[in-house]
Amino acid sequence: MQSEPLFLESVLHEKIWGGTKLKTDFGFKIPSEHTGEAWLISGHKNGVVTVKNGPFAGLSLAQVWQQQPQLFENNDATQPFPLLVKILDARADLSVQVHPNDAYAKVHAHDLGKTECWYILAAEPGAKLYYGHTAKTQAEFDEMLDQHAWQKLFRTVAVKAGDFVYVPAGTLHALGAGILALETQQSSDVTYRVYDFDRVDETTNTKRALHLADAKAVTTIPAPPAEIINTQDNHQNILPLAHEKYFDVFHWLITDSYAFKKQAPYTLVTIIAGAGKLIIGNNTYSLTKGVSFILPANITTWRIETTTKIEAIASNANQ
Fold first, then answer.
1. What total number of domains does the chain contain?
2. Running DSSP on this structure, what letter comes out for residue 71?
3. From which residue to which does any coiled coil extend (predicted)?
4. Is 311 in the same domain as 226?
5. CATH number of the domain bearing residue 270
6. 67/62 Cα distance (integer angstroms)
7. Are residues 199 and 276 in the same domain?
8. What is the pTM of this model?
9. Which H or E run contains 119?
């Protein structure tokens, strides 16, 4: 079979905190002015993307994963596609939340756990993340949750475009208002809300549910500090951002031409700035901002060319 990348059609999700930047900044056809997420690369049942090109056009990523395991060097197609890549537009603060690890999620949610990371695409002046908490013991954490002592409990950290933050399962966290971020995560949709700023859902006219018992059970105590990598001064073609249990993540920066060699069974790529060409053998594919694709296992070399500059976030699964 001819070696060909899998270009993907994103799935858009409306959110109470979402806005319009997925349209204005990335050109997506958003369903409303409260669009919070574009699921770019996903085999998860809550937002399975489809292949747009080649012999698998029209099939979902989940179907290709199961039916063509050789494209991923996948020895167990009964397991779900392991990663999910999305862009989030935080017009308002997201709920402060925590995700479980694999063991807890398997028992309580019949899903994978959710370790994730953020690459900050844009941030308005003064934008911040909620990351971690101040409690030193489980008893102190539980008491602050029971008393709704949110200002005392939450830690915040300022961020800017180009920052990268790793968010392991068990970390209390949220994107703050004015942030546009690319998220690479385990393929999971399990979220336990701790605080939602007393917002009322316009559809149901009720506050969204909190999950304090689950949060008490899964939150890491004490919380580790946020470690931020900034890529603004990066001049490397390939800058490693994360080498963790579930994934590796890289920032690609090409200002002319760069030849790549396969380093993993398959590679996930999203273009976050600029435009250029992907060249594989005798075939050339157009790359523009917001395009996402997978380089499957049968592609061992490729080249990206640009007349200006092109940036991408790339990742591969480690499980």
1. 2
2. G
3. none
4. no
5. 2.60.120.10
6. 9
7. no
8. 0.96
9. strand 116-123
Long-range Cβ contact pairs of 21-28 (< 8 A, separation 24 or more): 21/89, 21/91, 21/122, 21/180, 22/87, 22/89, 25/121, 25/122, 25/180, 26/87, 26/289, 26/290, 27/289, 27/290, 28/290
Token pair 């319009």: residue? 20
Specify whether 114 is located in the same domain as 144: yes
Residue 176 is predicted with a pLDDT of: 98
Active-site option among 91, 155, 193, 199: 193
- Residue 18 · residue 91 · CB < 8 Å: yes
Residue tagged 């063509």 (tokens):
68
Residue 206 sits at the vertex; the CA angle it makes with 205 and 209, to the nearest 5 degrees, is: 150
Question: 259: how many CB neighbours lie within 10 A of its CB?
Answer: 11
For this structure, is 193 an active site residue? yes
Judged by average pLDDT, the poorest of 23-37, 72-86, 159-173 is: 72-86
Contacts of the segment 146-153: beta carbons below 8 A, 24+ positions apart: 146/212, 148/195, 150/96, 150/195
CA distances from 74 to 185, 264, 316 (A): 19, 12, 13
Cβ(35)–Cβ(18) below 8 Å: yes
Residues 169 and 51 in one domain: yes
Q: Would you state the torsion angle of the CA atoms of residues 64, 68, 69, 72, taken in this order, to the nearest 10 degrees? A: -70
* Strand, helix or coil for residue 197: coil
Q: pLDDT by residue (tens digit) across 102-152? A: 999 999 999 999 999 999 999 999 999 999 999 999 999 999 999 999 999
Residue 220: is it exposed, middle or buried by C-beta count within 10 angstroms (0-12/13-18/19+)? middle
Question: What's the rounded Cα separation, in Å, for the pair 240 and 81?
Answer: 23
Q: Is the pLDDT of residue 261 over 60?
A: yes
- Pairwise CA distance, residues 180 & 120, whole Å: 6
Mean pLDDT score of the chain, rounded to an integer?
Answer: 96
pLDDT (mean) for 50-68:
97
Q: Are residues 18 and 160 in the same domain?
A: yes
